[in-house]
Design goal:
Blueprint: E1 6-13, H1 30-33, E2 35-40, E3 48-58, H2 60-67, H3 74-81, H4 85-88, E4 94-96, E5 101-108, E6 120-123, E7 126-127, E8 146-147, E9 160-164, E10 168-170, H5 177-181, H6 184-194, E11 207-211, H7 216-227, E12 231-236, H8 239-246, E13 252-255, H9 256-259, E14 264-266, E15 269-270, H10 272-286, E16 291-296, H11 303-309, E17 310-318, H12 332-335, E18 340-343, H13 349-360, E19 368-373, H14 377-385, E20 392-396, H15 409-419
Parallel strand pairs: 11-12, 11-16, 12-13, 16-17, 17-18, 19-20
Antiparallel strand pairs: 1-2, 1-4, 3-5, 3-9, 3-20, 5-6, 6-10, 7-8, 14-15
Helix pairs in contact: 2-14, 6-7, 6-13, 10-11
Length: 435
């Protein structure tokens, strides 16, 4: 097949990085900063693969990119550009964003032996060449590791994408393109946080507090905890999401809005009495037990409460900080109770592969709720920014409609109810606006 000279992608523009200057984060609109543009097709270099993207998904790093926080991603691209000839290709006045995809291999660069044109694949978002010895025990420790589509160019919210060969994994054959595209980043992240030796090493019977249990990361964490014999204690923000999480087979659910939890008295002053009230609520649900593990990702708003409610000797495992990066907690509850805080960032290839294997076997299911078309990628990101969704938000790229790409109908039929649990509509043309 002839590869086109150009393709359409969801891009940010370097000359617009100041467009939201003076606005609060909540008022910045990704629908204004993300543009659909025709851009030149990159040539795959050694160890690289050009993929025809059938579908992609929105992650919170796309939101950060689109509101230019905490810094514009063009700073990452410039830094990459200084690393050598390979990086220079990424330092462009536009940034094609997106850190998930499902698609078909089109072209392979020199030295790529595992993958061939025509292979149906999904991609995880760790980009690394492992040129340093630091990354050979855990590739996330490689000083040159980057998140594809966030710290690199040519991301997945596009018709074509450029990835490293060691980012690719088999597409789950029982899933549609849009379902397969939505799990790579969040499922791998939750796997490392909870299951891996690099995370909390969850064991059977562990009580696991999951913030945002109906969201992208949390909805996969719930499944991993249940599969591993743990007991999820789920925090959500509405009665509708309470019922959604209960449908996943968990009984211990806290509606934080209904309970009126406010962990801060004002912008600068936390409220330990609310931490205590929250901990009491957890014990009422668990039969008097504290949580062994906290899956932390909201950050500033919740971190003090997370440290407080963790059991003696327990673990807070943290990635991201969607409510703010400056965390404040009372160290007495950490140090005197021998608790641990583990920083966790995405996953290495082995962890991502194992997480994807669980999906291929029908043991973990996608939590896709809405699907947009590529021209509405900015609208989709705006919805994620405003927390208007449950589960994951997908984006059709080259796939002309939803429902395509299924090769294993038998497994799909066995899993259909669980696959469709988060879906709110079938026709993407009905999902191109936010209510």
């Amino acid at each position: 097949m002839q590869v086109p000279d150009t393709y359409r992608g969801a891009v940010l523009l370097a000359d617009e990085v100041d467009m939201f200057e003076g606005l609060a984060s909540a008022d910045k609109d990704p629908a204004k900063s993300i543009h659909l543009a025709e851009v030149p097709t990159p040539e795959p270099g050694p160890g690289e693969v050009l993929v025809a993207v059938m579908a992609s998904a929105v992650n919170y790093n796309t939101v950060w990119s689109a509101i230019f926080e905490p810094i514009p991603t063009f700073a990452f691209l410039k830094r990459y550009g200084r690393s050598g000839d390979e990086g220079k290709r990424h330092d462009l006045p536009y940034h094609v964003v997106g850190s998930d995809l499902s698609g078909v291999v089109l072209r392979t660069g020199a030295g790529v032996n595992r993958w061939r044109p025509g292979d149906k694949v999904v991609a995880h978002c760790l980009s690394t060449d492992l040129g340093s010895p630091d990354g050979h025990d855990d590739s996330m420790l490689d000083p040159q590791q980057r998140i594809w589509g966030y710290e690199t160019n040519f991301g997945g919210l596009a018709e074509l994408s450029l990835v490293r060969a060691n980012q690719l994994m088999p597409k789950p054959p029982h899933l549609t393109w849009e379902e397969a595209a939505c799990s790579g980043l969040v499922n791998s992240t939750a796997y490392r946080q909870l299951v891996s030796r690099n995370g909390a090493r969850m064991k059977q019977g562990d009580n696991v507090l999951i913030w945002g249990a109906a969201g992208g990361l949390g909805s996969y964490a719930v499944q991993l905890v249940r599969n591993g014999g743990g007991i999820p204690v789920c925090v959500v923000s509405s009665q509708e999401r309470v019922e959604l999480v209960r449908s996943m087979g968990t009984d211990l659910v806290i509606d934080r809005d209904a309970e009126g939890y406010r962990f801060w008295k004002d912008e600068a002053t936390p409220d330990p009495s609310e931490w205590k009230r929250f901990g009491t609520h957890i014990r009422e649900l668990t039969g008097g037990e504290d949580v062994d593990i906290v899956l932390e990702h909201p950050g500033r708003q919740t971190f003090g409460a997370s440290v407080y409610v963790t059991r003696r000797g327990g673990t807070v495992v943290t990635c991201a900080s969607t409510s703010g990066y400056q965390h404040l907690y009372d160290n007495r509850y950490l140090w005197m109770s021998l608790k641990r805080i583990i920083g966790s960032h995405f996953a290495n290839y082995r962890e991502a592969w194992e997480a994807n294997r669980l999906i291929c076997k029908g043991m973990i299911h996608p939590t896709l709720s809405k699907v947009y078309r590529l021209p509405e990628a900015g609208v989709a990101a705006a919805g994620v920014h405003r927390n208007c969704h449950s589960g994951k938000v997908g984006v059709l790229c080259l796939a002309p409609k939803t429902g395509l790409g299924v090769d294993d109908q038998e497994l799909r039929e066995r899993s259909a109810t669980k696959i469709n649990r988060f879906r709110q509509a079938d026709d993407p043309t009905e999902m191109t606006g936010l209510e």
